[in-house]
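sorry for the late reply, my laptop died twice this morning and i had to redo everyting from scratch. anyway the thing you sent over, i finally got around to it. pasting the sequence first so we're on the same page, its 295 residues, then the predicted structure underneath. double check i copied it right bc i was rushing
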Amino acid sequence: FMLNMVVFGISSGCSIFIAQFWGAWDFKGIRKAFGIMLTLCFTVSLVFLAGGTLIPEKLLHLYSSDAAVLHEGSRYLRIAALCYPLLALSFSCQMAFRSTEHVVLPMVTTAISFVMNVSLNAIFIFGCAPLGIPRMGVVGAALATVISRAVEMIITLSVGIARKYEAVGTLKELFGFDRTFVLKLLRIGTPVLLSETLWGFGITTQNSIFSHAGTKSFAAFSIMNTVNQLIVSRECRQLNFLLTKLILQFNNRISNLTEILVRLLKALNNHIIRHKVRGTFYHNNFLTIYIKIQK
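ok and here's the structure:
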């Protein structure tokens, strides 16, 4: 989760520039900003990869002291951590493509990755006798995650290059940025990065607290948090790119209308979470208390 937040913070900061360059039809600027995004996200992913493969027990101990959980979780994390660089690359590409209004490809690749991940999880975790695949448990779940992420990255890069999207360029165009350009991007993008990272630390701390309250309590919290992020984050992320472009191209009135639409979507999301999702998964007293707190 922390990797997602850091990568999202970096990508969001760089996407501000990409969307503005897109509004000005500055393709060289788009590629430079995209190159910085790739460099930073991939570097961060290597740090998380090292932690996940070398000290998984210590990291998981922040969330649980249960010996069985630590043992199984460590087995999962050692393998799943291999997908972190793949996640960083595919996520950076998707954010850059969305910022230049190529939203179909990220949507399709995400859907493919999701369906493949769910399918392979079912096959690898429980085994499939007709295919000769043994029951692998948590190791199978980690393997399914790595495979689905690899396929997502390969499709995203291949299609982006084949269709010659504006963010795609030569190595010199992507990584030929100078010190002045980097400092300008960091000056504007750092607040976004810090905001997302600090928010990620807050959610991580919250997860740690709920995990020590018991397995059922943490499961209830995880369900609600996942559904909330699935609904509100995707919608508002797409509208954010549109808002950035409108600021450059049009006047503040249109931008304000977009901001109002974002707020309406958030309100709709809260209504769905409170009144619909609660009864979809299971009835849990802790879940009800958590929803009341969110009000």
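Confidence is low (pLDDT under 50) at residues 251-255, 276-295.
thats about all i looked at so far, will dig more tmrw
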